Amino acid sequence: MTQKLNNTPARDLDKFIEYHLLPDTIFRTEVRAAIDTICAFLKDRCFQGTTHPVRVSKVVKGGSSGKGTALKGRSDADLVVFLNNFSSFKDQLNRRGEFIREIREQLYALQREERIRVKFEVQSSCLPNPRALGFTLSSPRLQQEVQFDVLPAYDVLGHVSTERKPDPRIYRSLIRECTSLWKEGEFSTCFTELQRNFLKDRPPKLKSLIRLVKHWYRLKKPKKKPKKPLPPQYALELLTVYAWERGSGDTEFNTAQGFRTVLELVTKYRQLRIYWTKYYDFQDQYISSYVLSQLRGTRPVILDPADPTGNVAGSNSKGWRRLADKATAWLGKACFKREDGSLVGPWNVPTEVPVPQ
Fold it and tell me: How many CA atoms lie within 13 A of 66 on its CB side?
């Protein structure tokens, strides 16, 4: 990268994002075509020859590709395959491995078809019941390889409406099964559409700020896997949305100010208690009791807006401390300085969302 983020003046951050972080149109088109190819294969062909009938209700594109926050040169896609064969969350947990093995076999069969000009590199897993199947796709028309993760999931939501919240019975069932199995956050893939919709229609400039935060996060991520990894990237994405909602809410805003706000919130990680009520709230007593117990847990707490069992901030205090130290070191960098040398101030954003008494 010809220009480094830490040397970019505050006034040029939007240009930095445009030149270095936004995927170009041709690349986006090529990746979309590759994803469509795999989606069609998974939905229409993958399970045709199986000994027992398998019904794919839908294939949903998740991750950064689905949310519209992909970084330039990073072509990865999460594809969640919703199967009617799963009858519960526990069923998904117990049987996902058999469907992943079938998908792997069918990908190898597809690769042997000479008329299809794609090449697969399927990652093998030593786990008996893996959560996902990872593979790489390349073809003559693609500028570079595309990384895929395919995840089988229980179709608990069915048709997703943008007009109303999911039926509370869905969340009651999720909470019951997660707590009995000690698997809180395990079934977030079932709510991929809600996670995607939470971000999908946000203003383009907010998505650009998310890209900037993700780029910064990856600059700080060590190449070798440490014993205590950094907090998940999804936590930083949600923290960015929260900072914008509480600090600006406008389609146009000062990027340096937004970026500084997110880093300052990272430095205050011990105080974070963040949640949303877009898809679940406190109206149902059973759900309310569980969500309140989550919110009263050890901080940081950043609840997945689509899955109340998922505290995406995790319990990784050492990882947060490392990230906070890096954020503190960055607060005096050129990317937060005006032309006169003064520092851009953050938005006035609280570290916690009040909870009902």
Answer: 20
Stretch 133-140: mean pLDDT: 80
Task: Report helix, strand or coil for 73.
Answer: coil
Query: Which stretches of the chain are DSSP H helices?
Result: 13-16, 25-40, 63-67, 89-112, 168-181, 192-200, 204-220, 233-247, 255-267, 285-295, 317-330
Residue 66: name the closest of 306, 309, 311 by CA: 306
Length of the chain: 357
Helix or strand holding residue 57 (H, E): strand 56-62
In whole angstroms, what is the distance from residue 63 CA to residue 52 CA? 30
Report pLDDT digits (tens) over 147-156: 889 999 999 9
Q: Which one, of 217, 221, 86, 98, lies nearest residue 158 by Cα?
A: 86
How far apart, in whole angstroms, are the C-alpha atoms of residue 60 and residue 43? 10
With beta carbons less than 8 A apart as the criterion, state whether 55 and 126 touch: no
Phi, psi of 134 (to 5 degrees): -100, 135
Task: Report how far residue 155's alpha carbon sits from residue 43's, in angstroms, rounded to the nearest whole number.
Answer: 14
Q: Give residue-wise pLDDT tens across range 109-131.
A: 777 775 556 677 777 767 778 88
Q: Are 97 and 157 in contact (CB under 8 A)?
A: no
Listing DSSP states for 8-20 in one string gives: S-GGGHHHHIIII
Contacts of 79 (CB under 8 A, 6+ apart): 35, 38, 39, 42, 59, 60, 61, 62, 148, 149, 150, 151
Name the amino acid, one letter, at 162: T
* DSSP string across 102-162: HHHHHHHHHHH-TTS--EEEEPP---SS-S-EEEEEE-TT-SS-EEEEEEEEE--S-SPPS
Q: What contacts 189, CB < 8 A, 6 or more positions away?
A: 62, 80, 151, 153
Query: pTM for the complete prediction?
Result: 0.93
Instruction: Report the SS3 class of residue 356.
Output: coil
Looking up tokens 């088109």, which residue turns up? 29
